[in-house]
Amino acid sequence: MRAHPVVGDSLIAVHLLLMDLTILVAARFDPTGAMPPWYVAVPVDIAVVLPVVFRRKHPLWAGYAALLTGAVHAALELGFASVFTSGIAVYSVVVYARRRPAALFVTVVLVVSAVHLLLQFREDWLALAISTVLLIAFCWLLGEFVGARRAYQAEVEARLHLLETERDQATRIAVAEERGRIARELHDVVAHAVSVIVVQADGASYTLRSDPDVAERAVRTISATGRAALAELRRLLEVLRDDGSGDSGGQPRVPQPGADALAELADRVRAAGLPVRLDVDGDLGDLPAGVSLGIYRIVQESLTNTLKHAGRDAATTVRVCRRDDVVEVDVSDDGAGRARALVPEGATAVPGGNGLIGMRERANVLGGTLDVGPAPGGGWRVRASLPLVKETESWHRTATD
Hints:
Strand content: 5-15%
CATH architecture of the largest domain: 2-Layer Sandwich
Order of helices and strands: HHHHHHHHEHEEHEEH
Structural class: alpha+beta
Oligomer: single chain
Number of domains: 3
C-alpha cells in the first residue's frame, strides 16, 4: 500500500463499486424497488468511485470530482458509495492539500449536503443531518491527525539528515585540519634534518684536505641524517595537502617536542592540579622524530582530555614502553572516583571529537593503532601502538632500484 498507493486506492474503489453493484443486483429482484436501469446506474457507480484512485496525486481535483459525481449518485439513490467517497475525499484533502483549500472544500461539502437534504425532505432529516456532520467531522479530525504525524516524521527525518551531514562535515574538517597540522610538524622535523646535512656538508668541504678524519665523520653524519629524513619524508607525502603552494597556513615553524619531553609535560600537568604518574620503560631518546612527536602529542591530548572531562581529582597514569619494533602508549585515569558500569575491554567504540580524531589520524599516519574508550571498572583509557619500521633501509633499496 505504501510502495504502490495507486494500487491500494484502486482496491478501495473496487470494493465500493462491488458494494453498489450488489445493491443494484438485489434491487432487480425487489418488485418494489425503483432503481434506474443498469446502463445508467453502472456508469454513475464507476464515476463516483473513480476519483478515489487519484486522491493522493490530485487530492483537490479528486475531491471535487467525487463531490460532483456523489451528488448525482445520491440523487439517484444508487447506494452508499457517495457517502464513503465524500468522507474519503475530505480526509484526503486535509492530509495531502493545504489547510485553506481543505477548509474551503469541507465548506462546499457541508453546503452540498445541506442542499441535498432540503431537496429530498424526509422525516428523518435531523438524524441524517447529524450523521453527515459527524462523518465529515470525523474524517476532518482523522486527516488532521495523520497530516500532523506525517509532518512531524518529515521534520524529524530532515533534522536527522541535517545532523548527519553536519557531523560528517565536521569530521572531514577536523581530519583536514589535523592532517595539515601533522604535515607542518613533520615538515619542521625534515627541515631540521636538512639543516644538519647542510652544516655537515659545509664542514666536510672545509676539512676534506686538511683533516680527512673529521670530513669522514661529517659524511657519516650526513648519511645517517639523510636516511632518517627520507623516512620522515615518506610519512610526510601521505598527509601533505595537494595544493602545490607550500604554504604553512601562517603557522610559525618552531622546534617540536618529542618523547624525551614527557617528563616536562607531566610536570606542567601536575602544576595544573592533575596528579600524573609517568612510567617509561626503554630508551626513548633515539626514536624517529615523527614517532617521538606522535607519542608526545597523544599523551598531551589524553592528559588534556582527562583534565577537561574528569577534573583535577582524577588520578592518571601514563605508561610508555619501547620494545624492539614497537612503542606502546597507555594513558588511563580513574574518573575522579566516579565508577561506571563494568565493560569489557575493546567493547565500546567511541567516535570522539576533534581531539580523538586528531590522535587517530596521527596514529594512522605513523602506521599504528589507537584504542579509546571506558576503562573496566571506571575512568577512561587511551592505548596507542606505534611501530618502529626500518623505513630507511626499504626507502634506500627502493631508490637504488
